[in-house]
Write a structure and sequence with these properties.
alpha/beta, 18% strand, single chain, 369 residues, 12 strands, six-stranded mixed β-sheet
Length: 369
């Protein structure tokens, strides 16, 4: 799976505004459809108070955060799966990302055009999800035809593989025909692997991003509640953001000024920080740390990675010559105050090649090459 997050939605819902604020890399944003054609790509530092704490504790010379890659993809319209509004081109861009952040307009503003001339998040979500499902349905139908041909003319081993593909696709197809996501199908791990090469868009994890106005942030919004209800039924996360507010926040020069601005509306952090972390976790990514006076760094791994695999993220020699990992939990440093006290409490551990690295581990690797 690609390690990036695609920002999708109808035209003029605020995708490019959110992207620009998120990445501090201005994307073109305008009050007309298809302002964005080629996808914009930006790398975002992952906000992490744990890294801030470590950097302060070790009085480090250098602080390096984990990062998330976001891709701003042009707005889709009804009929995109049939090529409407350059839909085929934009759908191809979505196939290349790891997870999807579906931006939904949850604010009223007569000065900003809505492609349907009405604000209806439920209808907007249905439009996008239907187009993604129909695009996948076309892929599935073609793949079924290919698998059926293979089952007739190939040897027993290839026929067995084709049968596995057909089994998975026949579970997925009815869902897509009804505009539902392929990820809702009851597939085994083997079946998921069998159709991986289809690169189905609706197999990708998705979260909803409600773009609200300032009243929506402070007072809540019935539009947001409608989105939450849909997301709950799909098992998806919801992040609420005020794109205009975040754009203003991103232009401020100092951290103190941003904190004061957040405090004025009763927020502890920006919605974009929440979005970045949600995307990171949705991609199945987690963080371990290395810490010292020279550098404190957050390193990115996948859920389930072993200690040697994590060591390889730092350098291939670390993985190749892995001996052991000296590990303690970030929470233990907060509780006990120092590595010496962590050791005295028996919380400082030596782990071997089978150890599954946990989010928040602080690790020192021993290796020999």
């Amino acid at each position: 799976m690609a390690i990036n997050c695609g920002i999708v939605g109808l035209p003029n819902v605020g995708k490019s505004t959110i992207f620009s604020a998120l990445t501090a890399a201005p994307a073109e944003a305008a009050n007309y459809p298809f302002c964005t054609i080629n996808p914009n790509v930006g790398i975002v530092d992952l906000p992490d108070s744990r890294l801030d704490f470590l950097a302060k504790k070790f009085e480090t010379k250098r602080r390096v955060a984990a990062t998330v890659e976001f891709v701003d993809i042009a707005g889709l319209v009804k009929g995109a799966s049939k090529g409407e509004g350059l839909g085929n081109q934009f759908l191809a861009h979505i196939r290349e990302v790891g997870v999807i952040a579906h931006v939904v307009r949850c604010f009223e503003n007569e000065d900003i055009i809505h492609v349907s001339n009405k604000i209806d998040p439920v209808d907007d979500i249905e439009t996008i999800n239907m187009e993604l499902a129909f695009a996948d349905l076309d892929t599935v139908n073609k793949r079924i035809e290919k698998a059926e041909r293979n089952a007739r003319v190939m040897g027993k081993e290839d026929q067995k593989k084709a049968a596995a593909v057909l089994s998975a696709l026949n579970k997925v197809k009815p869902l897509l025909e009804n505009g539902q996501a392929a990820r809702a199908a009851d597939l085994s791990e083997d079946e998921i692997a069998a159709i991986y090469d289809c690169h189905l868009i609706t197999m990708k994890p998705m979260m909803y991003v409600c773009n609200v106005d300032e009243d929506g942030i402070q007072k809540g919004s019935p539009y947001v509640e409608a989105v939450r209800k849909i997301a709950q039924g799909q098992g998806s996360d919801v992040v609420v953001i005020c794109g205009k507010f975040e754009a203003d926040l991103a232009e401020m020069d100092s951290a103190e000024e941003r904190e004061e601005f957040l405090a004025e509306i009763g927020l502890k952090e920006s919605g974009l920080a929440t979005l970045a972390r949600a995307a990171y976790h949705l991609m199945g990514l987690r963080t371990f740390f290395t810490a010292g006076q020279d550098e404190c760094r957050a390193w990115t791994i996948r859920v389930g990675d072993t200690a040697p695999k994590a060591a390889g993220v730092i350098h291939t020699d670390f993985e190749r010559g892995f001996i052991k990992a000296e590990v303690y939990r970030y929470d233990d440093l907060v509780q006990y105050g120092s590595e010496a006290e962590i050791k005295a409490a028996g919380k400082y551990r030596m782990e071997g090649k089978e150890y599954i690295v946990q989010d928040g581990d602080v690790i020192f690797f021993k290796f020999n090459v």
